[in-house]
Amino acid sequence: MKKQASSGKRSAGATRPKPEPGYHHGELQETLIAASEAILAEQGAEGFTLREAARRAGVSPAAPSHHFGNAQGLLTEVAIRGYDALAEALRAAASGKQGARDKLHAQGLAYVDFALRHPGRFQMMFANKRLVADDARLKQASRAAGHAFETVVSELVAGTAKEAKTAAAAAWSTVHGFAKLALEEKFGSVRNESGRREVMMTLDQVLNYLWPASAARR
Amino acid sequence: MKKQASSGKRSAGATRPKPEPGYHHGELQETLIAASEAILAEQGAEGFTLREAARRAGVSPAAPSHHFGNAQGLLTEVAIRGYDALAEALRAAASGKQGARDKLHAQGLAYVDFALRHPGRFQMMFANKRLVADDARLKQASRAAGHAFETVVSELVAGTAKEAKTAAAAAWSTVHGFAKLALEEKFGSVRNESGRREVMMTLDQVLNYLWPASAARR
DNA sequence: TATCTATCTTAACACTGTTCAGATTGAGCG
DNA sequence: CGCTCAATCTGAACAGTGTTAAGATAGATA
Hints:
Oligomer: homodimer
CATH class of the largest domain in chain A: Mainly Alpha
Distance between the termini of chain A: 69 Å
Order of helices and strands of chain A: HHHHHHHHH
Number of domains of chain A: 2
Largest sheet of chain A: none
Radius of gyration of chain A: 21 Å
CATH superfamily of the largest domain in chain A: Tetracycline Repressor, domain 2
Number of helices of chain A: 9
CATH architecture of the largest domain in chain A: Orthogonal Bundle
Helix content of chain A: 55-70%
């Protein structure tokens, strides 16, 4: 019942507009992923429900199971794309600067900016209990994002591999912790653009404190 | 509802073993909080349900509402106690050392140690959406815990108040991010004691990298 | 054209948090 | 001592949730 008037007739299809009729949706996986990301963007990680995603995709609550197994499977796919987007943002930020220290600084800003602009997606990416934590592709995507830090940091420390790993862990921990605390409003409101800008300025100072611009340290 | 105090203390009797019969439980609030903490310890933050807490306390699912309003109210109380315990752990760690830098280092270790030993409680403390985020006592407890960092850091930087705040934000972000990432197994397994010990050694190196022991920086 | 098989629906189950009318009971007051 | 009363808790209901099994549908294949 109630097929929500979804462009049933594909008669004079000039450019193959939308093939989403009754039984065989055709692109249900992508549609469900997009719906999930929309929910995360609108309502945050806690607002996601599998049934709501199915509702937005125009299918029954049982439909997703055939493609993703369960809710964790769907969210895992969403998280993978999130990690890909994050890695891309980090890469772009670093490529805009010269010098290891400035690259790292820009990456730190980009990391938190990503978290503040896509809070639901970001929180879900790190909500292991809601994902298939041992999924190979997820682990790969997560490692790729973390790797973006290591490559830049390795230029910076110029020491042993272990030192580079320590420095990368330090950088990741700092920006991740700042992002998490900021999202919990520990540094002030972050809902509007002006609040976010102020928080980002605090982050800038934090990064300057931990990785000073000049060679001299405090 | 929400009439605290009372503390139905029936005096007399030398020993009062179990006053938890039928209708008037007598200590339901404390019992519910303890049950909730037990669930968090056993099953993590995602494993908590209000009904399970009521079940363990031996009351109906509707009973908690008379004391805490709703699940958020109960969890807020749990979070407050968590912040109190965390603040106490930070204070104890700092008091065992001398010198601002060593105090800060010890506090960082204590922070992550707390998170790794009480993962469910820790995650819940920072799950704003599941708490009454604007509860006055909660905000106060959270600020008190954060203040433990500021007091120690202010000795370290010896600059303006703004610089101290920046340094405190840096320290908190780093240890919080490390704790979060560690709990998501980004630094290796953390389920058994040996895994935790290894992760704590990584943290030790991270802290040494960001706040070196000697005056000379890298 | 007939069959096969992936895809999706329907219906059900066991949960969840929350609400509300009513049962119970300890405590204070006459 | 007995009564009333307000606080406390129960029982039942409601609207949700994720997941599963059995059946309907339709695109692809032979």
